[in-house]
Amino acid sequence: MSYFVYILECNDGSLYTGITTDITKRLDEHNTKTCGAKYTKSRRPVKLLYDEPSSDRSSASKREYEIKKLTRLKKLELIDNL
Asked: What Pfam families would the database entry show (predicted)?
């Protein structure tokens, strides 16, 4: 199963990073009232800015952790370097 690390931009301009196996489904979950992360529930709608594939959950989780440690500026640079 393939995993993806993704970065969302929330309605308030903040960035959210997560992992999933289905980006389209997860984005829809973040934007509905029934599912999604606690962080994004009060910051809807969200839009996808970045995604990167990972071979397995472990590598996706490690990459998510690396991205979460980056400053906002570094995350925006990562997004711009697509």
From this structure: GIY-YIG
- Total domains in the chain come to 1
Which residues constitute the domain of residue 47? Answer: 3-80
CATH number at residue 11: 3.40.1440.10
What pTM, to 2 d.p., does this model score? 0.93
| Helix, strand, coil in percent for the chain, rounding step 5 | 45, 25, 30
Element (H, E) at 68: helix 57-69
Give the separation between CA 66 and CA 45, rounded to whole angstroms.
Answer: 25
